[in-house]
Amino acid sequence: xxxxxxxxxxxxxxxxxxxxxxxxxxxxxxxxxxxxxxxxxxxxxxxxxxxxxxxxxxxxxxxxxx
Length: 66
Description:
The protein is α+β, with helices and mostly antiparallel strands.
């Protein structure tokens, strides 16, 4: 069975901290190179957000001709 090319990481943060964390994650793993996305999220009873970040294991190399 081929290895999944994506890494999924689950986090739990307070709402504003979750937003800041996701922004930093997108800066660290840019969407155009890692296909980064918030795969899923949900509100918890504790006022926290549980969310899963998904990204490629290896970045897509930039096309030298573009």
